[in-house]
Design brief:
mainly alpha; Arc Repressor Mutant, subunit A; Tetracycline Repressor, domain 2; 2 domains; globular
């Protein structure tokens, strides 16, 4: 059964949020996160400070706005994978949505560098990724062998995969984006899945 269309008001709100976040990221990249004020973002976007806060609770939310949506896209992609596929293979395929985001390699590098270079954003990023774990664990659980600890195992797999992705992203930034992110992710996964 096809999904009902998204109401126009929600579509408009989503477009405005995206434009505000993009404007903020351009300023953060140019001036630095700490040196950019909310007032400057509002002025650059042609809106009032009050309007900006109708869309985002805080300056940090401007920088991290896409992470919640990314988590939902990753979970949806995971759910589309074959039910008998290894959960790790499904997670890797699901994480590929991050490579499909419409941006340049330079802009992606600026964004990830910004995230890992600011303690407040880094903490917010970790919090958002913890929500990814909440989305993914219930999808992983039915793929695991029956056990009274299956929920725990699913959460552990989700958490480990997300941590591997974060470690790979940090290494990708350290190498200036000159290597493939998912080659680094595969290396991280092999390190934790290696038999003792």
């Amino acid at each position: 059964m096809p999904r009902p269309p998204t109401p126009l008001r929600e579509q408009t709100r989503s477009v405005v949020r995206s434009l505000l976040a993009r404007t903020a990221m351009e300023l953060f990249a140019a001036k630095g996160y700490d040196d950019t004020t909310v007032e400057e973002v509002a002025a650059a976007a042609g809106v009032s400070r009050r309007t900006l806060f109708n869309y985002f609770r805080a300056k940090e939310d401007l920088a991290l706005s896409g992470l919640s949506e990314q988590g939902e896209l990753i979970a949806a992609r995971f759910a589309e994978r074959p039910a008998d596929e290894d959960p790790w293979a499904s997670l890797r395929a699901a994480f590929q949505v991050l490579e499909e985001i419409d941006t340049t390699a330079e802009r992606r590098l600026e964004f990830v560098t910004l995230l890992f270079g600011n303690e407040s954003l880094r903490a917010g990023h970790a919090e958002k990724q913890a929500r990814w774990q909440d989305l993914l664990a219930p999808l992983i659980e039915p793929r695991l062998p029956g056990s009274d600890r299956r929920a725990l195992q699913a959460r552990a797999i989700a958490a480990a995969a997300i941590t591997c992705l974060q470690a790979a992203s940090e290494e990708w930034v350290r190498q200036g984006g000159r290597v493939e992110l998912f080659d680094l992710y595969d290396t991280a996964v092999r390190a934790i899945r290696r038999p003792a």
